[in-house]
Amino acid sequence: MEWMQPLPELVAGDTISTQVSIINPYAYAIHFNNKTSPIRFIAQFDEPRNHLISSALILNPFPDQLAGTDTLVTTAAFVVPTMAVDGGYLISFCIVNGDLRPAYCSPKYKVRITEK
Asked: Alpha carbon of 38 to those of 33, 65, 67, 106, 115: distances in Å?
């Protein structure tokens, strides 16, 4: 999963809508609406003190599945969380399977988060 146009500065509380690409590296389809272990998407923020804060990443349209080796470009929206300190953070977009830790995350992008 990749953020196609990273933004250098974000404001806490703002809803960000951006383009992302989801790449299936496998030769088989990935099914996102698995009732036993549903897949979620999150924006994960790494604080300088090594705390992780996440925000739900809403995809529109939300894919049912992604065929083997296909790439989907879609719109993703998330709310920028309020952080303890204004400053630099690392953000990545992650795919989470059920209640487990993120299975796959995009490269981390450096952003500055400020209060309104």
From this structure: 6, 12, 17, 19, 33
- Take residue 111 and report the two structure tokens written for it: 């952003």
Contacts of 50 (CB under 8 A, 6+ apart): none
pLDDT tens column, 47-89: 777 778 899 999 998 888 899 999 999 999 999 998 877 778 9
Between residues 21 and 4, the one the model is more confident about = 21
Cis amide linkage into residue 38, ω under 30° from 0: no
Residue 31: strand, helix, or coil = strand
Reported residue count of the chain is: 116
Evaluate whether 3 touches 20 at the Cβ level (below 8 Å): yes
Q: By the 8 A CB rule, do 43 and 89 touch?
A: no
pTM of the model: 0.85
Count Cα atoms within 13 angstroms, Cβ side, for 82.
3
